[in-house]
Amino acid sequence: MQNGQGNNRDMISVYNPSDGSLVGTVQAGTAHDVDEAVRETGDAFQSWSRTDPPERSKILFSAAGRIRADQKNLATLLTREQGKPLKESMNEIAGFSRVLEYYASISGMLRGDYGVSRQYGHMMVRREPIGVCAAIIPWNLPALIMSWKIGPVLASGNTMVLKPSSTAPLTCLALVGHLYEAGLPLSVVRIVTGSGDEVGEALARHQDIRALSFTGAVRTGIRVAEIAAPTLKKTILELGGSDAMIVCQDADPDLAAKGAVSGRFFNCGQTCTAIKRVFVDKKISDQFIRRVREYAGALKVGNGLEKGVDMGPVHTMSQRDALHSQVEETITREMATVLCGGTLPDSSSCMGSFYHPTILTDVDPDAPVMNNEVFGPVLPISTFDSLEEAITRANATRFGLGASIWTHDMRIISKATEELKAGIVWVNQHLRIPPEVPFGGTKFSGIGRENGRYALEQYLEEKTILIQP
Length: 469
Ligand code: NDP
Description:
The structure is a single chain. 40% of the residues lie in helices and 21% in strands. It is α/β, with parallel strands linked by helices. A 7-stranded mixed β-sheet has the order 12-13-14-11-10-16-17, sandwiched between helices. The longest helix is centred in the N-terminal third of the chain and has 21 residues, at 86-106. The protein is globular, with a radius of gyration of 23 Å. The N and C termini lie far apart (54 Å). Bound molecules: NADPH dihydro-nicotinamide-adenine-dinucleotide phosphate. NADPH dihydro-nicotinamide-adenine-dinucleotide phosphate binds next to helix 7 and helix 8. Keywords: Oxidoreductase.
């Protein structure tokens, strides 16, 4: 299944987080495999970059259709290796196709510029693909994040070497198989599986890779940027977030509570733009918190392949333990009140890395769950007296990925959308993002943008041509 590697190699095992069973194995690639993949994709760049955009679009549209037709199988594989409920996996696979179709529809649209000057003659600006690009993908939304990287790269005539996460690589491999079947030349995209230390760092270090898009943890992003710096490759970093949700006095408490629960517990809380801190106006806090508790309490937790399951396990045992430590520390230091959850399920009755949906109230601003990114199903709720206080507290984090404000008052919307320091500000919604708009953060949430035509621009370089007739 994996391309570019031989037999007799070290293997990486992929386990189902719901029951610990083996889902599959992939090869543990090496820096040598990266070299080979970069050479092949470099050769392929010569013809792919000269392929007419409509031809490229045809392949992307066809791949999107094939992936839709195979949605159930791909979604089942995604649930088995990642843990999320099947309905979320189905949406994520559909999202992959939607993103591919979006880029297929705008391939070739960024055409450059033209003008005439008496002094300089014809002035042209060509937009050219930049070469071999690399992508490093995490495990939380592997298919969607892969589409955000592969879509603009292929549509703009570049080629790509992609490293999936070691704990969820199988869906990425299956998706690229559909691209090949749709007619994508094999050497235009190469996947190299393997550890971050070996394969990831080899990609960051490689001289012949002209752009690298990384999604993952802040510390890894900084390491990748440091290693990549001497090669002067364009480096796009999509890192973590600690999104705030501000619920104002005039908000519909029921709608906001539903939004808080879906925005936090989707994907078992393991989404960079999940709601990670809620600030609710004191005047409606009782009502709001009561509803949040009801909705969170109704979530069915279990194996994502079982019918009716709303939330799967945390992706790995070690991640669940790290999450529980953050919660335990907050509770032990009496920095919050536990409204529900906060304990580990009985390990004798379940093998998976499950965690109860947890709601913390009266949370101290200095609590670990307020200051570090919490990547799991834990929702800390605080109250506020004034909008200024809510915005100040929402901004009091090193992250700046997303934020939302829940109100219908235009003056509040105008103030909050201006003052919240984030790459995305939602009003009366959170988390949802269509393919057309840019996605990315400020401060420690990253550098650069994915999604939309903005991503396409990042993979094109302007060439100025001056013709004196
Ligand atoms: P990691 O940073 O550990 O891993 C992400 C990817 O980087 C994986 O493919 C991993 O490989 C690879 N990697 C690990 N070490 C290195 C290295 N030294 N050099 C190069 N690559 C490396 O993050 P997680 O997988 O734990 O993902 C969760 C984090 O990602 C969270 O903090 C979350 O907020 C953030 N995230 C941000 C998003 C955004 O768009 N802003 C979206 C999704 C997640 P391997 O699996 O082999 O270790």
